[in-house]
Specification:
Helix content is 37%, strand content 18%. The strands form three sheets. Strands 1-2-3-4-7-8-9-12 form an eight-stranded parallel beta barrel. A two-stranded antiparallel ribbon has the order 5-6. It has a two-stranded antiparallel sheet with strand order 10-11. The two termini are 25 Å apart.
């Protein structure tokens, strides 16, 4: 078993806070959810009633930010105004950490999708330099998420796993380990998800994501965050905690949001897996999740 360094910004099992269900989520207790996550782009500059509701959550729960539009691998200049606004939001609400996707989503304008960065040495240096700049502006380490993608970027000369590891090392940043994205890519691109997961650097893990997806075809899965988590992904989560030891993990659900008790039942499944593979008691258990 690899052991992740204890550099986690939060602890336990988390849940994404979505504005459309913010009133329903107000009943969630700290015993049920340990931390929450929002996209900063959805909350920067928000005032009025929603600002008060958000403050009520940030006063009760630990929070992390997960960005949507930084476009860390994109050809356009970094949006440093956005980064500064993110830093202000973090300071205003006592938010502990910021993560983004290891992708790009803009050129002269936003492309409204997260596209894969070419897996090349040149792209490693380019992307790592931009990550370092973000970290300098924020004054702290950030995390990059292993992203889902549907066609490799042209010109790739490296494997995906080698590209991710090289960027994390050169930028000296953390990893947001997305379990569902590993599974999605393993089906779409034909590799072993367990081998890929085990090759990720334990010492870089900040926290993780798990989510549902949509099966377009036998060999094509779309990462939607709009469905229940399937058994194969729960099993991969178990294997991830078995290998690294338990670390903070957040449930993503962006649309088709079910009643809150159903969301909390999946958070409970995360907690159960964490308890099985805590640092004190690591063992193999093939039992299925409920």
């Amino acid at each position: 078993m690899s052991t992740a360094k204890n550099n986690h910004p939060v602890q336990g099992a988390g849940l994404g806070l979505r504005r459309e269900v913010i009133d329903a989520m107000a009943s969630i207790s700290n015993d049920q959810v340990d931390f929450m996550e929002v996209a900063p782009e959805n909350w920067i500059g928000v005032g009025g009633a929603y600002a008060k509701k958000f403050r009520a959550f940030t006063e009760r729960f630990d929070f992390v930010l997960h960005g949507l539009s930084l476009s860390i691998g994109g050809p356009s200049a970094l949006d440093e105004d956005l980064i500064k606004s993110i830093g202000q939001l973090m300071q205003q609400h006592g938010i502990k950490f910021y993560s983004e996707h290891l992708t790009y989503c803009s050129d002269d304008g936003h492309l409204y999708d997260l596209l894969p960065i070419p897996f090349t040495e040149e792209a490693v240096h380019y992307t790592a330099k931009r990550i370092k700049r973000v970290q300098d502006i924020l004054g702290q380490q950030i995390a990059m998420e292993n992203a889902s993608y549907y066609t490799p970027a042209p010109g790739g000369e490296m494997q995906e796993i080698d590209f991710i590891k090289a960027v994390l090392e050169e930028a000296d940043c953390s990893l947001l380990l997305d379990v569902n994205n590993i599974y999605v890519n393993s089906i779409n691109h034909g590799y072993d998800p367990v081998e890929f997961m085990q090759a990720l650097p334990a010492e870089r893990i900040a926290y993780g994501h798990i989510a549902g997806h949509y099966n377009e075809a036998d060999d094509l899965i779309v990462d939607t965050h709009g469905a229940d988590i399937i058994e194969n992904v729960w099993q991969l989560l178990d294997k991830t905690f078995e290998h690294f030891g338990a670390f903070p993990m957040l449930l993503e659900r962006d649309f088709n949001i079910p009643p809150i008790p159903e969301l909390l039942s999946e958070v409970e499944c995360i907690k159960a897996s964490q308890q099985k593979y805590s640092a004190k008691s690591v063992h193999t258990n093939g039992q299925a999740h409920g």
